Amino acid sequence: MTVPRTICLGFLALILVGTGLLTLPISLQSGQWGDVLTALFTSTSAVCVTGLVVVDTGTYFSGFGQFCVLLLIQLGGLGYMTATTILLLLLGRRFGLRDKVALQQTLDIEELSGAVQLVKSIVALTLLIELMGAIAMFSVFSQTYSTGRSLWLALFHSVSAFNNAGFGLFPDSLISYATSVPINLIITALIILGGIGYQVMMEVFFWGRDRLKGKPNRTCFSLNFKVATSTTLALLLLGFVGFLGAEFRNPNTLGQLDAPAKFLVSWFMSVTPRTAGFNTIDYGRMTTTGLFITIALMFVGASPGSTGGGIKTTTMRILFECTRAVLRGKEEVLCYRRQIPNTLLIKAIGVVFGSVMTVILATVLITLADPSIEFTLVLFEAVSAFATVGLSTGITASVSALSKVVLIITMYVGRVGVLMLMLALLGDPKPSSINYPQENLLVG
Amino acid sequence: MTVPRTICLGFLALILVGTGLLTLPISLQSGQWGDVLTALFTSTSAVCVTGLVVVDTGTYFSGFGQFCVLLLIQLGGLGYMTATTILLLLLGRRFGLRDKVALQQTLDIEELSGAVQLVKSIVALTLLIELMGAIAMFSVFSQTYSTGRSLWLALFHSVSAFNNAGFGLFPDSLISYATSVPINLIITALIILGGIGYQVMMEVFFWGRDRLKGKPNRTCFSLNFKVATSTTLALLLLGFVGFLGAEFRNPNTLGQLDAPAKFLVSWFMSVTPRTAGFNTIDYGRMTTTGLFITIALMFVGASPGSTGGGIKTTTMRILFECTRAVLRGKEEVLCYRRQIPNTLLIKAIGVVFGSVMTVILATVLITLADPSIEFTLVLFEAVSAFATVGLSTGITASVSALSKVVLIITMYVGRVGVLMLMLALLGDPKPSSINYPQENLLVG
Ligand SMILES: [K+]
Ligand SMILES: [K+]
């Protein structure tokens, strides 16, 4: 069993187990057998940490059902974070693409026992951050709800936020907390930490430890660290300014809020497309410009080695640096005084091309199945599903069964990744040893 | 004066001269001074061979005005075709990107005198094809109109079709000829020839001549030939099947036609996004799926060295072959047993990234200026302007002045190309001689 196949089948198995659990009468508030499509949709959405829902999690599912959803989120998020971190570390060892693929082909998952220490570290860090988030949120929720309810709410939302899952127990996501400073800061902090990747967090940790110990500061941040943090910051700033500009006078979103609240909500809107999926405003009443900016940010998504989805900040950055290189007439792509290997350029193109094709296919299929729904809303939903974001303009529950199946497949493909899925399906790639002559073409 | 600056300023100068001509009282049917914004929009649209219009060309402009439009189309189309063919031939000489850019910097346009022969050949081929198209169409139009009017109609539509300009003299483009087999075949043939590129036509010509002469057939088609023709064919087929599927039961487009007419109109719909811009159905009444397919096809556009726009079939093919290479675990990108140089991959990324950003920026600005217009229609218009297509869902004339200015700039940027414009603005790129170490990143 190759690594890509193990990952793809692992997610599939988890989704199917989850579907089984979520149809049980014990999982439902009503105590009856649940609808299979609803269970499949919810299970896929949870395992892929997407957050799109066709039923209200807080009222449709019983406490046990909600616990199952939370477990699926945690397993899905941790599983993805672990798998991508291992790939990231393997890549760090200067393997070429061909070596890496060959490695993935030969390396059985059992041989990865050296990674056990890494998995332990990831699990510990995850639980620590989630616990801190839960404690912080408990202090807010306990002002309104009973202790037991507050504990459950705090735990659920903390796990969901760190895993960028977007599932919530309130029917309106976090709209009622739109102007609550503590909830906004706690949730956005969890989202950003969950979306920045394990490696980046560990580098900050080691850097901080070295500084505290008064050691001569010789930590050299990796290229991944620099690219992930700077691109994330740029996207946050871009989103913040964009949403503030687009929604400033929209009476349905920012228009009727005072200045500090406008900033707070814009900040949240800018963080949540990093594939978190919580919302503090109604995306169905956003301006077209706002929806468009959200679609673009969702498609880019989070950083590698994290719980988030999308094409990843690093991929986006490579495309950006390529464009800069072309404009400067350079033959190699540089980023922070490091040269980006050509195999990475090819892979970045493959990722983006495959992703765009998947989104286009999903959008076309949904518009064919539900021709009455406006195009923007369908595109928004498709990108949200693909990048495992979970934001919605409110159409998820009302689309036809066929569109729901399309969304389920899109969430799955978006999570395991187009390339990973194709590698799993195609199997053994045989590198050719023939060298063909180069020939030029005019592009653009 | 560098080549990029010459091209950018040349187009700008032609647009401004055209604007002046089209404001003159003699150019208007009404005999009064024309609106400057309307003249600027029409002149840009004509020079960039786009075909978006804010007034009906056939009734707003006088015979002289229409002649000016036709002249601007011919100069704009020929100018672009010549410039890109020269670049294509220079590339054929195995220059790297750095050499090419350096060459463009040092090579004054006056030194291109060796290209005079090439320009003569391009002009001759263009006029020959346009003449044949005009004669063929005259035989159709003369059944309905007087000889003089038929001549003018045939000439205007032939030149407009070969230059992929999309300007017509009928207020409804070619909707009244939707089921006319001769007009459909003549126009689509002109569009395809105009969009395939000079080099491809010449290779076919030489191949045919050698075969006729009974010479041993040793013509070796270039990579550009193979990529341009096969990708164009694939796009035509994809569009044909897509439109037939999407519009089959739409009563506003294909629904009420008989089977042969359904095929004919689908064929036309599949050809015209190769940035021609004529239409035989009302795009404002198309299904969302159909609009979406059109947007995708328009963005790809035509082949290099032609009159058409878009990111070009070759760029699209490189992205596709990259994706295939990644899935097969290969480190180099192959296409017809030729290796695609890495500089070309970088350039392809630059072209697509720059193009997507331009379209996003234009779309956001228009949705901000005209928030009441549906998003799909705005995106359709922005892509149509950028890829110099000229198809419209009918909003062009009714958008605000600000949006019209955005469309004018988008048409110009789309025509000269994002990279060309940036090179013209930035000037002298200085290639660095420092070699930086490689470092890996996880993408996707
Ligand atoms: K999510
Ligand atoms: K056109």
UniProtKB/TrEMBL annotation, chains A, B:
<feature type="transmembrane region" description="Helical">
    <location>
        <begin position="227"/>
        <end position="246"/>
    </location>
</feature>
<feature type="transmembrane region" description="Helical">
    <location>
        <begin position="67"/>
        <end position="91"/>
    </location>
</feature>
<feature type="transmembrane region" description="Helical">
    <location>
        <begin position="344"/>
        <end position="369"/>
    </location>
</feature>
<keyword id="KW-0813">Transport</keyword>
<feature type="transmembrane region" description="Helical">
    <location>
        <begin position="183"/>
        <end position="206"/>
    </location>
</feature>
<feature type="transmembrane region" description="Helical">
    <location>
        <begin position="405"/>
        <end position="426"/>
    </location>
</feature>
<dbReference type="Pfam" id="PF02386">
    <property type="entry name" value="TrkH"/>
</dbReference>
<dbReference type="InterPro" id="IPR003445">
    <property type="entry name" value="Cat_transpt"/>
</dbReference>
<protein>
    <submittedName>
        <fullName>ATPase</fullName>
    </submittedName>
</protein>
<feature type="transmembrane region" description="Helical">
    <location>
        <begin position="375"/>
        <end position="393"/>
    </location>
</feature>
<keyword id="KW-1133">Transmembrane helix</keyword>
<dbReference type="GO" id="GO:0005886">
    <property type="term" value="C:plasma membrane"/>
</dbReference>
<dbReference type="GO" id="GO:0015379">
    <property type="term" value="F:potassium:chloride symporter activity"/>
</dbReference>
<feature type="transmembrane region" description="Helical">
    <location>
        <begin position="122"/>
        <end position="141"/>
    </location>
</feature>
<keyword id="KW-0472">Membrane</keyword>
<keyword id="KW-0406">Ion transport</keyword>
<keyword id="KW-0633">Potassium transport</keyword>
<feature type="transmembrane region" description="Helical">
    <location>
        <begin position="153"/>
        <end position="171"/>
    </location>
</feature>
<keyword id="KW-0812">Transmembrane</keyword>
<keyword id="KW-1003">Cell membrane</keyword>
<keyword id="KW-0630">Potassium</keyword>
<feature type="transmembrane region" description="Helical">
    <location>
        <begin position="283"/>
        <end position="302"/>
    </location>
</feature>
<feature type="transmembrane region" description="Helical">
    <location>
        <begin position="33"/>
        <end position="55"/>
    </location>
</feature>
<dbReference type="InterPro" id="IPR004772">
    <property type="entry name" value="TrkH"/>
</dbReference>
